[in-house]
Amino acid sequence: DAGVTQSPTHLIKTRGQHVTLRCSPISGHKSVSWYQQVLGQGPQFIFQYYEKEERGRGNFPDRFSARQFPNYSSELNVNALLLGDSALYLCASSSTRVTSYNEQFFGPGTRLTVL
Amino acid sequence: KQEVTQIPAALSVPEGENLVLNCSFTDSAIYNLQWFRQDPGKGLTSLLLIQSSQREQTSGRLNASLDKSSGRSTLYIAASQPGDSATYLCAVTPNDYKLSFGAGTTVTVRA
Predict the structure, then answer these.
(1) Which of A29, A77, B11, B30 has the fewest Cβ atoms within 10 angstroms?
(2) Given a cut of 90, is residue B12 above it in pLDDT?
(3) A112 vs A11: CA distance, rounded Å
């Protein structure tokens, strides 16, 4: 079975541009979460979507937005890119909402470099 | 606000030695705790998940313990191998929808 997939693998943008990152969850998983990982730090939570509804948002500016499609895939959009947005963007999927046995599975990430 | 700390930040051991990685968290109200492995520039691989009602979980050479009341978890890796070299991250699920991560411990196993 395929795991969580993300595209593209790498991306180089310039300041002020817009970027769209894509994620496909494990088949049957209805929850998708997005995380930002800056070099040397742990991942920071950006969004979670469950059944196409936003369930939570982390402490990120409104330049960050996301959505989940009927097939449970998801897009993360970032507008007006800043140098500080350079990071590894990780997508995670899980089968249910938060429970004690709810394991999160991560994709390989998209490496975004902003010049 | 949940704070997760992993000490030490880096660890180097000779092959065959047992590894002990520590994780502490400030709020004991968690659903579960998960340990992940991350290779350089790659995504996260889930190693073990410990439910809040459990004390430990085992998978092969890996054993993780959880003491919720003291806000601590320990990951033991027996008989380390060079292939175990990676960054190990712990994350807790507080009473909402997200994972709160530590910064990780980078392990180097010397052949």
Answers:
(1) A77
(2) yes
(3) 5
> A69 pLDDT band (50/70/90 cuts)?
very high
Taking the Cβ of residue B104 and every Cβ of chain A, the question of whether any pair is shorter than 8 Å is answered with: yes
Q: Indicate left, alpha or beta for B38 from its phi (over 0: left) and psi (-120 to 50: alpha).
A: beta
pLDDT band at A100 (very low <50, low <70, confident <90, very high): low
pLDDT cut 90: percent of chain B above it:
83
B40 to chain A, any CB pair closer than 8 A? The answer is no
Residue A68, classified by CB atoms within 10 Å of its CB into exposed (0-12), middle (13-18) or buried (19+), is buried
Residues from chain B that touch A108, judged by Cβ atoms under 8 A, are 42-43
